[in-house]
Specification:
FAD/NAD(P)-binding domain; 2 domains; 7-stranded mixed β-sheet; 3-stranded antiparallel β-sheet; binds flavin-adenine dinucleotide
Length: 399
Amino acid sequence: MKYVEEYLNTPVIGEYEVIVAGGGIAGIAAALAAARQGAKVALLEREYMLGGLATAGLIAIYLPLCDGMGNQASFGIAEELFHLSIRYGWEGSYPTAWLEGGSAEEKKQKRFEVRFNPQLFAIAAEQLLLDAGVSIHYGTTVCSVKVQQDKISHVIVENKSGRRAYRVKAVVDTTGDADICSMAGEKTALFQQKNLLAAWYYYATNRGYDLKTMGVADVPEEEKTGEVRQLVAKRFGGVKEEELSEMMLLSHAEILRDVLKKRESDPSCFPVTMATIPQVRMTRRICSAYTLDTSEERISFPDSIGVIGNWKKRGPVYEIPFRCLYGIMVKNLITAGRSISVTDAMWDVTRVIPACAVTGEAAGTAAALSDCFETLDVGLLQKKLLEAGCRISCRDEAD
Ligand SMILES: Cc1cc2nc3c(=O)[nH]c(=O)nc-3n(C[C@H](O)[C@H](O)[C@H](O)COP(=O)(O)OP(=O)(O)OC[C@H]3O[C@@H](n4cnc5c(N)ncnc54)[C@H](O)[C@@H]3O)c2cc1C
């Protein structure tokens, strides 16, 4: 490998108490929670809209806030964002029983989930954060960090203005891929099974518009022939440019193929929008002092920061220990969303929108309170979360 040497003398253009890197669901929740605790917060987002996979990635299904048995599991910002996602209207799966005072039996029948419009949700989230005093920086990629004495002292970004740095007290990594943790030298793990191709897109016909949730994982066995079989065999890790580019190219080709096929029976069909970021589920996560597993259903942890249900199964609820959010090496760095410390089985549960909001709120609150997460007074963090309307114990009586 050949190298080119660069001389870097990066200007420090500002200082924040909390920098949230990545404006997906976890980042929105973290920035909002930190700002509500009175911290000076910057949210740095590589794209030009908030929401990450949920909006730019067109994953417009807010999976359940409930346990599937008629009890609400997740509260706080997770519930607030649920309502925000449909403030200007919903697109499907409206949970009447939950939003309009249904009976316990009705809540058991229909889970507390909804389909929202991604663009309206992104704009509503932006307005919410601006109102809370969060400084939003778009088109801004965190490309490096400076670590001094076990703490990140500066976050280095690249955007249209060039390469610049911010001084910082605490950093929340909500890039979805634990990018900042990896840059800072924190211990991380990759998802070994890697991701199958997904190509969700919106299309319109004379009869209206709809979301096509297309992924080769959904292809029936008998249709897994030729090109499709090759796609099923193909997996994408999600932390390498080459793989992500290939994934986007293949997803575009699949969308074209699917639309042209639809047009054979309905010539009025055309695509309206497609994902502008790769639809990867699990990529890289931190390895912290505690790694949560699906077997730890209804287990109480002394450092629980929130409760989530299981979108895949009715019944299980989980407390999330605070230890799953921060690593061992870098004291003022915390993560939330797709990259917390969980086993592969649990990863599929914690990566979804409600869980990302729960961990985001806890990470943002913690970042506003401390610049050393291993010594943070967890009782104080829990008190703040309870005051903000969160539920932290799975033993609490359901509403
Ligand atoms: C195909 C598919 C189907 C899914 N189905 C559902 C579903 O039906 N319902 C559900 O609830 N969940 C679903 N999920 C999961 C869910 O959408 C996501 O896991 C969740 O939205 C992730 O939120 P996040 O904030 O952790 O990460 P992300 O949404 O990935 O957000 C990370 C953000 O960080 C930004 N970023 C990344 N790197 C940098 C950097 N270096 N500097 C600055 N910004 C950066 C990105 O642009 C992005 O905005 C699905 C996911 C996929 C892929």
